[in-house]
Design brief:
The chain folds into 2 domains: 140 residues, Response regulator (Rossmann fold), CATH 3.40.50.2300; 143 residues, Response regulator (Rossmann fold, 3-Layer(aba) Sandwich), CATH 3.40.50. Helices cover 46% and strands 19% of the residues. It is built from 11 helices and 12 strands. The protein binds beta-D-galactopyranose.
């Protein structure tokens, strides 16, 4: 009897050993041939379905878009990827060259990416990009540079994630309106301003330029435009434009409006170099709320800025890209609010 029990026990052990071996073998085989198709819903990270996300940024050398793309990558990797799905994000530099960027998008298409996130060099390229993506049935999410409504209507697997630049312009104007004498620091009865514009092809630049001034005139404040010049979102250009304006108009300038913070940092350098003092004899406002500018706002060296919420926009863009990959119905526009920042 004892012998029979020992024999049976050995049999059980042997069987479980064999089963163990064979199941390990099949795990290895599964991992070895990584299956990237939508049906693969394994329960470990190694078995996860892989979604390829192609991101192209108009140029890497842009302070705000650098924060944006870093956040976008981080959110896809750290928050959205899990045991079931891994988002493989490739981010490329459009180098401010639309032809180059169009090629990059073509490469994403040829490499069968699942979704494309595009910060266009030129918004006018949107229709070409949409048609390319439509032919390949790869959804596209535009960020930061808004295409026209007609372009967005070309296909249902296309959406825009951004912020309403009119709101940021209006907030800049309100910051000035709330200052003593509504920003007329030299007391000559009108707010004389310098407008440092971004890239004028871009609605952010157009609307911020228009609505910052409109917020003042709507409230009955008299204004005078001394200079309006394009600075292409660039700090060095913001510095040059402001320096030249200060040389030409001196104390005639009450306010320097900059369409973004990078240019406001340049304007800040020029104002200091000219021996002027923000808050005492001149005012300066930007948009984006870059860390450096926020600390200048705290110390009073820059009058105010408007938070362009790159975190909120990056997360929304990624969430919309995921919806698109999952075949959910997309809205045309997803908008994130701006926030006024003053001392
Ligand atoms: C704006 C931002 C600018 C610049 C620009 C690029 O929204 O305020 O700093 O990044 O986008 O299109």
């Amino acid at each position: 009897m004892k012998r029979i029990i020992v024999f049976l026990l050995s049999l059980v052990m042997l069987t479980s050993l064999l089963v163990g071996c064979s199941s390990n073998k099949s795990d290895t085989a599964d991992n070895g041939s990584k299956d990237n198709t939508a049906d693969n819903t394994g329960d470990t990270a190694a078995d996860a379905k892989v979604v390829k996300v192609g991101v192209t940024i108009y140029k890497f050398d842009d302070n705000f878009m650098t924060l944006y793309r870093q956040e976008l990558e981080k959110y896809f990797k750290e928050e959205l990827s899990n045991d079931e799905v891994t988002y493989e994000v490739t981010v490329v530099d459009g180098k401010n060259d639309q032809a180059e960027q169009t090629n990059q998008i073509q490469t994403f298409i040829a490499d069968k990416y699942d979704v494309i996130v595009a910060n266009l060099v030129q918004s006018s390229a949107a229709s070409t990009v949409i048609n390319m993506c439509k032919d390949a049935d790869i959804p596209v999410v535009f960020i930061n540079r808004e295409p026209t409504t007609e372009d967005l209507d070309l296909w249902d697997k296309v959406a825009y994630v951004g912020a309403d630049a009119r709101q940021s312009g209006t907030m800049q104007g309100e910051i000035v309106y709330d200052l003593p004498n509504n920003g007329d620091v030299n007391g000559d009865g009108k707010v004389s301003y310098v407008m440092v514009m971004g890239d004028p092809e871009n609605v952010d630049a157009q609307y911020r330029t228009e609505f910052s001034v409109k917020a003042l005139t709507d409230k009955g404040v008299a204004v005078e435009e001394l200079v309006k010049q394009r600075g292409d979102w660039d700090q060095a250009k913001g510095q040059e434009i402001t320096a030249a304006a200060l040389t030409q108009f001196g104390n005639g300038i009450d306010v320097v409006f900059c369409n973004n913070d990078a240019m406001a940092l340049g304007a800040h350098q020029a104002i200091q170099a000219a021996g002027r003092t923000v808050g005492t004899d001149i005012y300066l406002v930007g948009v984006d709320a870059l860390d450096e500018v926020v600390s200048y706002v705290e110390s009073g060296e820059i009058t105010g800025t408007v938070l362009n919420d790159h975190v909120g926009q990056a997360k929304t863009a990624a969430d919309v890209a995921v919806k698109a990959v999952n075949g959910e119905t997309l809205e045309k526009n997803y908008t994130v609010d701006y926030v006024k920042i003053t001392k």
